[in-house]
Amino acid sequence: MIKVNFKPSENYLDRAMAAFDVLRGRQGRGNDFLGWMDLPSDTPESIIKGCEDIAVEWRDSGVEVVVVIGIGGSYLGAKAALEALSHTFGIRRKGIEVVFAGFNLSEDYHADLLDYIHDKSVAAVVISKSGTTTEPAVAFRIIKEHMERRYGRKEAASRIVAVTDKSRGALKSLSDQEGYRTFVIPDNVGGRFSVLTPVGLLPIAVAGYDIRAMLKGASDMASVCFERSKANPAVLYAAARNELYDNGRKIEILVNYNPRLQYLGEWWKQLFGESEGKEGRGIFPASVNFTTDLHSMGQYIQEGERIMFETVVSVENPGRELTVCDDPQNLDGLNFLSGMRLEHCNKMAEAGTRLAHMDGGVPNNRISVDRIDEYNLGELFMFFEVSCGISAYMLGVNPFDQPGVEAYKKNMFALLGKPGYEAQAEAIRKRLD
Ligand code: PA5
Predict the structure, then answer these.
(1) Which of 69, 105, 129 to mutate for ligand 1's pocket (most ligand atoms within 8 Å of CB)?
(2) What keywords appear on the UniProt entry (predicted)?
């Protein structure tokens, strides 16, 4: 089970308990989007087995690459899990190679992707809750055309699975028309809370990982995080970060010392940024990879403006073992490290950095996780989701909407000439001159 060392004051703990009651009692703003709370225990066997069966079917039929198409909450959870669980250099795969698309509009990215898949056996998972998001829709158009050209329309359809709303949106209509297999994203689960639906489970299963273990980790964590207790780690985290925010710490930096967790940071940024950043409020979520970024962001964190605090996700046990070798010549003067586990050096870097940053006036807290595996990732996903709900209610905002995401879309549609946006287009173009 994860351990945390947050020590908020009694006042903030009480406030966090009140917000916890609102969340658990399903009485707060956005309470029609609380389906994620029940996912670990209530996900039907048919969905779990359905994801596993597609993974087996594609593996047995020789599929070499699965392109997962989605943006925001429709890709970050799976990306975070796969980066965390997979070999850093892409070897020793457990399942099929998964690559991602549709999370940007870059011509270079998607043209490079077509180069990469052109001679490989390909399948695709297209994910969009609304079924109308431009980035994944455009990417899917490109991948679909590629697959239909290579395999014909019928076989391409058998290699495509859509994950979308049960009845609404262009992706649902397209799936019905083309006969794609589909998984439903429940109405009451928002994108950034959807990693434990087929949005995350299907790509993770396809890549060969144990989605049952992930759901078990999430379920065990849910038992802890929905317990009405001042020792509840989600309550402690929400209380501590709100206290820091009210004391002028407007930025939270999620820190890792293992590059495999880089995308956990990206997923966490979306979760907290979209849930809390509204109505002129919210902690700005940032992330760094240490020790790498100690040589880029370290200076600012140590001595720049005192507006941030750090939350370290610390992994107790690495999955691999490597020691520093001895060098009889010792020209680099590093023989004091000979025979030492590299992870021990990493842990000492972590301890030294914690003290240095605290001395520099940056509050530093830790979330410890036993190891990086499916079970522990399930725990982390659930822990952060519950913490986020409590924390946003403490801030006084609705954690489950994202009205600000629409602003850029309107301008982009007008500039691209989307029918219905003619009136805005001229005014917007003038502002760009
Ligand atoms: O959290 C959210 O709701 C958003 O980030 C969405 O996940 C993102 O905008 C993608 O939306 P959709 O799944 O509808 O394509």
Answers:
(1) 129
(2) Cytoplasm, Gluconeogenesis, Glycolysis, Isomerase
